[in-house]
Hints:
Layout: H1 3-6, H2 12-20, H3 23-33, H4 39-46, H5 50-62, E1 66-72, E2 77-82, H6 84-87, H7 90-103, E3 116-117, E4 124-125, H8 149-169
Antiparallel strand pairs: 1-2, 3-4
Amino acid sequence: MNWNHIGKSACPVARSLAMVGDRWTLLILRELFVGVPRFEDIQAQTGMSSHLLSARLRRLETDGIVKRQRYSKRPVRYEYVLTPKGLDAYPVLLALKAWGEKWGGFTPAEERSTKLVHLKCGYETGLQLICPSCMAPFGARDISATFGTKFAAERTRRRRAFLAHRRLSS
């Protein structure tokens, strides 16, 4: 299955990954979220080649996640700003940050790379999953997931195609 098919899946995770699912794109988003909007600065912080960065930024622009904004007329220069769609990806970066802090091989004595402080109250914050009904925190083992009809059918078709292909290959 290629990315074009994944982007048409009934699964929202698959569709999201079709837009932002590679490591370079997530690093670009990291830079935009910490206030680094210019091509040269994004390139310096990510280590990406200019060709790769250009391609990823074009894709983010096509997908409506970022928009270019001119900041200089001579020479013509653009910076990249997150659209509302892009801003809504913030919890994804927070989740990766939290997971990386726990499982990324950091020692307990190491200073965290980034502190997130809520501007309104000044409290240091992070990722916290809370049920909107009872306000209790929850994790992966505290929920149940059921597939919608369209996604369940897609999964069945995919499994059958996989098994058929495997039988033909053996």
